[in-house]
Amino acid sequence: MKTQNFGLLYFLMVLGQMVLCNFTDFSPFVMLTLLPAMIICVPLTVTTPFCMILAFVTGLSVDWLSEGIIGLNAASLVPVAIMRKPLIRFFLGEDIITRSDSFSIRKNGIGKISFILLVSLIIFLGIYVFLDGAGTRPAWFNLTRTGVSLACNYILALIVTNILTVEDRK
């Protein structure tokens, strides 16, 4: 997949995230997000500082155009961008980072990709729920919200990863 195609798909996913934020409010326990999977799928040729800027701009644009609290998605997404390469290095190996190779569910297996996605979702949702509650909600509510959102977002993250990652079809 060319970088131009990735950029267009990324932009469309950001628009999809805005639609999710504006029009899906199932309960106070469920928050749907595509953002952590989108940041994990950024090509490995992109440096971590640029990925952090991309995460900040993406999160801020979603906050500004759909969410009520400015900076909540941005503050939760930047740590995912910081942990992107270490997570890939830990679960997929050092050689994929040094070669700036692509990864996909088909190439690396659903198990390894699932662990990367789950850890990135835990980082994102943990920060998001903690900042959103800001000491005003009880711990059981925050833990329940994190767990239910993690279960729902895992399926979305697999779909996003399958769309955004490069498949080597020759």
Name the helix and strand elements from N-terminus to C-terminus, one letter apiece. HHHHHHHH
Q: How many strand elements?
A: 0
* Count, helices: 8
Structural class label: mainly alpha
Task: List its salient traits.
globular, 170 residues, mainly alpha, single chain
Q: In words, what does this structure look like?
A:
This protein has 170 residues and is an all-alpha fold. It has one domain. Helix content is 74%, strand content 0%. It is built from eight helices and no strands. The protein has helices spanning 3-23, 35-40, 48-65, 72-92, 94-98, 105-108, 110-133, 139-164. The longest helix has 26 residues, at 139-164. The chain is globular, with a radius of gyration of 16 Å. The model has no long low-confidence stretch (mean pLDDT 86).
Which helices and strands occur, and which strands form pairs?
Elements: H1 3-23, H2 35-40, H3 48-65, H4 72-92, H5 94-98, H6 105-108, H7 110-133, H8 139-164
Helix pairs in contact: 3-4, 4-7, 7-8
How would you briefly describe this protein structure?
This protein has 170 residues and is mostly helical.
